Amino acid sequence: MNFSAAERETLKSVYRQAGPEGVARPGDLAEALGLSPATITARLKKLDERGLVEHRPYQGVTLTLEGRVAAVAAIRRHRIVERFLSDMLGYPWDHADRLAVTFEHSLPAEVVQRLFVALDRPKTCPHGFPIPAAEADEVAVLPTLADSEPGDMVEVAMRGDTHPDVVSFLETIGIRPGTVVEVRERHPFDGPVVVTVGGEDRVVGHKLAREIFVQSGHNR
C-alpha cells in the first residue's frame, strides 16, 4: 500500500498520541501536526475509508491493525533516515529529526532498507530510541530516568523536540543520547534523581528526569 507524506505523518501522530488506551483525540492530532480541525478531520476521513483508522466523532481515533503496521513502518523509516543523517552526513542528533521529515517520504522502501543495511542494521535512532523491526505493529516504549531504580545502569534517549535549552544544560553535565549513567539515588515524593556520569555524581530534578528516556540492561 502506498502512502503520501501527509498520510504517514498523520498515522505516526495517531500512534504517538493514542497512549495506553489506544485512542487519540482529533484536537490533539491537529495541534501536534499544526493543522486546522477541518484539515485533520478530512485526513482522518480518508484514512478511515482506507481501513487504516476508525474515526468516531466525539469518541476519538483508533488505528486498525493495518494502520498500526503502517504507522510503525513510518516510524521505522523516519528513524533509519535520522541515523543516515547523523552517521553518514554528520548532522547533530538534535537536528536529524527535523531534517528527516523534509525528504524521508520521497525515498522508495527499497532505498530505506538499503540505508538500513549500509548503516550495519542499527538498533536505535540517533536519539536513542529503538528502530522497530520490519512489519512490526508495536514500537518499544521506553521508561524515563524518573522511573529508574538505584543501582540501574541505563542508556539515555531524548526526544528530537526536546527544548534546546534543556539539551544545552544536559550537555554541560555530560548527558546526551547514548550516554550510559548509573542511577545512585531516587528521592521520594517527586524528588530529584542522582546519577553518576563520567565518574561524577549529578543531580537531575524530577521534571527534567521525566524528559530523559532510558534503556536498561547495561552491565556495570
Draw up the topology in text.
Blueprint (H helix, E strand, L loop, with lengths): L4 H14 L7 H8 L3 H13 L3 E4 L3 E4 L1 H23 L5 H11 L5 H10 L34 E5 L6 H9 L7 E7 L6 E5 L2 E5 L1 H4 L3 E3 L5
Antiparallel strand pairs: 1-2, 3-4, 3-7, 4-5, 5-6
Helix pairs in contact: 1-2, 1-4, 2-3, 4-5, 4-6
Question: Can you describe what's shown?
Answer:
The chain folds into three domains: 5-63, Winged helix-like DNA-binding domain superfamily/Winged helix DNA-binding domain (Arc Repressor Mutant, subunit A, Orthogonal Bundle); 74-133, Arc Repressor Mutant, subunit A (Orthogonal Bundle), CATH 1.10.10; 145-215, Ferrous iron transport protein A (FeoA) (SH3 type barrels), CATH 2.30.30. Helix 1 (5-18) crosses helix 4 and helix 4 (65-87) crosses helix 6 (109-118). Helix content is 42%, strand content 15%. A hairpin with a 6-residue loop joins strand 4 (180-186) and strand 5. With 220 residues, the protein is an alpha+beta fold.
